[in-house]
Amino acid sequence: MNCGCVYCISTSELGVIENVGKYERTEGAGCHCINCFTEGLAGRLSLRIQTIDARVDTKTQDNALVVVRATILYKVLPDRAHDAFYKFSNPHEQIRSFASNVIRGQVPLHPMDELFTIRDEMQKTLREELEEQMTHYGFNIVATLITDIDPSVEVKQAMSQIRTNACLRLAATYEAEVDKLRIVKAAEADSEAKRLSGVGLAEQRKAAILGLQSSVSNFAGSVKGMDSKDVMGLLMMNQYFDALKDIANTGRGNVVFLPANSNTDMVEGIMAAESGKKRK
User: Fold this and answer.
1) Annotated domain spans of the chain
2) Residue 270 pLDDT greater than 60, yes or no
3) Which of 7, 35, 76, 237 is buried deepest, with most CB atoms within 10 A?
4) 3-state class of 26 per DSSP?
5) Neighbours of 269 (CB within 10 A)
């Protein structure tokens, strides 16, 4: 508010006073009297923190197009209000231009994949360079934020495809490992089954031998005048007849077992086999 020679400056503002068109002084919040003939209020400067949004189109080290969005928070330095008021005609646009220039200098130094991991580093560099430059113009950079890194649609599709291919490759690797594990486990199971089958067969033969030994001993002891050889011959003959009986009962046998100790026996066996075929 101003009433001729009296001006009121609001809180968080500075008033710039000129004397005959020349900068005279700055006044803080309150009511101030000036010389109406030679002095005037040239303008006001806000001491509040202000925000600038910047959108920068650039490309990365691997030539991927990307849009970087940044937010800059700044305020006027009270002791350098003269520079802030007279050196910049449009602080928002000029600070935005400085920020865009810094971002365009950083992004091309890094590939696309790395850009997302160095956000904090980019923010720090942007603030340091802006603060160094803006201090000369009466502004303090409070904070700089990289709010978004947006690749082009083609780059997004390519990155998605790369990620998909990587997942498919990993899945194929896992599937191959599972198939390998199945084959190995199946081979181990088959080996263990054969080992156990062999152990069982060996135990079976051992039991058969022990039983046969016991039978021969008992038979030789019960029948007088027969030795172990005679008993073995008798047992073998019984097994022979049992085998012939099983072959005759099944009716699907293609092999006839004949004794090899007599030609007459062999002829009789062949004749018996032919007779069996005719009956079928």
Assistant:
1) 2-46, 50-151
2) no
3) 76
4) strand
5) 16
